[in-house]
Amino acid sequence: MKLLSYRTPARWSWGALVDGEIVDLATTNPGWGTLALALAEAGTDGIARAVTALAGTAPRLALDSVEFLPVVPDPAKILCVGLNFEKHRIETGRERTEHPVIFTRFPDTFVGHRTPLVRPAESECFDFEGELALVIGRGGRRIAQDNALDHIAGVTCLNDGSVRDFQSHTHQFTAGKNFPATGAMGPWLVTLDEIAELTALELTTRLNGVEVQRAPLSDLTYSIPEIVAYCSSWTRLRPGDVIATGTPGGIGARREPQLWMKPGDICEVEVPGIGVLRNAITAET
Predict the structure, then answer these.
(1) Residue 73 within a domain
(2) Which of 154, 168, 223, 250 has its CA 20 to 30 A from that of 89?
(3) From CA 43, how far away is CA 101, in angstroms rounded?
C-alpha cells in the first residue's frame, strides 16, 4: 500500500495510490484528517481495509492534479541519524560513537515531491543527502529491537538537504539542518508488507542525472531495529513520527572540488520498490 499527503486548491488531504490514481481517505473517514491521525486511530491494517472498501466507488484524483506534501506534514517528531553509513563517517573524519548520533529537524524544513528545495540567502553551501526514512505506525517507549519492525508503518525517500557552513558553526547540527524548505520527503509511504527485506534496499542520489551517492541499506552502521530501540529508550515514539536513517558517502562537502546544489539543479533520491523523490532547487527570494 502506498499512502501520500497532498494539497488541492480546496484543501490539504491524504489518500492511497490505487492504479496510479489517488483515493482520498480524509473526507470519507471522520477523525482521519491526516495520515498521522489515521495511523494512531486505525493503523495500517485499518487503513488498508478502508482502501479496499472505497477503491471501487470513491472519487479519484490524478497525480498531476495535486501538489505533493511531505508524506507526514505534521509529525510530532523528526529524528535524524547522523554518520550512519561507514563510508560517510570516514569521509567526515569522525570517530565511530558508542550510540547513534541523533539530531532533530522541524516540520517546516520539509517539502514534498516535485516542490522546489530552497537554497537560503545566507549560504551557497547547500548539500544533498539521500536517505531512507521510517514512519512510525504504532507508538511506544523502550521498544525492543526484536519488535521494532512491528512499530514501523512504512518507509519513504528523504533528502536531508544541509546548509554546511551553518552546520559547522558549532559541534551541534541544528542550524544547518533547519532552514525552511531545505529538505524533502516522499513521494509516498510504502507499507512494510510490500517490502520483503529492508536491508536489501539500495539508495541512490542523483544531481542533474549524475549519480552522486549509492549504497545498500545493509551498510548502515546502526540497523533500523537498533535505531528504533535507541530512540524509544529516551523518547516516546508516536504514530506519524519520522526517523531518517542516515546518508551514504559522497556528499558534496567532501568532494574535490566541493559540489553544491544550486538554483536550476534537479536532485533525485531513489529507492527501488519505494519510488523517486524529485525536487528542483530554487533560490530564496
Answers:
(1) no
(2) 154
(3) 29
